[in-house]
UniProtKB/TrEMBL annotation:
GO terms for cellular component: endomembrane system. The keyword Nucleotidyltransferase does not apply. GO terms for biological process: methylation. Signal peptide: none annotated. It comes from the Bacteria. This is Protein-S-isoprenylcysteine methyltransferase. Its main location: membrane.
Length: 153
């Protein structure tokens, strides 16, 4: 088990990467787009990300199970309906989509590397440990679910 596994709340990881993207934007080339156009492009993507994230949270609440990503062993139900039929990690997908929106707002294609960093971090330090815990909790039911729903998209 790595020292960072299930240690940093995913919203904080996304926020930190977003801050780094914003800081890096000062040093990276960007497209010369008006603020209005940047908002028009990024806002629908942000709303999509927030909607995906919210759908994940609501599915967990309906199942009366924990949404705390730092304690996956506390899950009381395997949520596999609703948005979880399409992605095993809608909340993380929502955060990644919000980071794409931020990159679009910054109008710097190089800041998309922040989204890549987020996905790589989440895969290694959040999702892999979560899935190990869920495999222990739910066994073959979780394995079957993984064969039906993709990790991200």
């Amino acid at each position: 088990m790595g020292v960072l596994e299930n240690r940093i709340p995913p919203p904080l990881v996304a926020t930190l990467i977003g801050v780094l993207m914003g800081g890096a934007d000062c040093y990276l080339p960007s497209f010369d787009l008006t603020l209005g156009l940047r908002v028009a492009i990024s806002l629908p993507v942000l709303l999509l990300g927030l909607g995906v994230c919210l759908a994940g949270v609501l599915s967990f609440q309906r199942a009366s199970t924990t949404v705390n990503p730092l304690r996956p062993e506390k899950a009381s139900a395997l949520v596999d309906g609703g948005i979880y039929q399409h992605t095993r990690n809608p909340m993380y997908l929502g955060f990644a989509t919000a980071l794409v929106a931020w990159s679009l707002m910054l109008a710097s294609p190089f800041t998309l590397l922040g989204v890549v960093a987020f996905v790589m971090y989440m895969n290694r330090f959040q999702i892999d440990p979560e899935e190990r815990a869920l495999r222990l909790l739910f066994g073959e039911e979780f394995v079957r679910y993984c064969s039906k729903a993709r990790r991200w998209l």
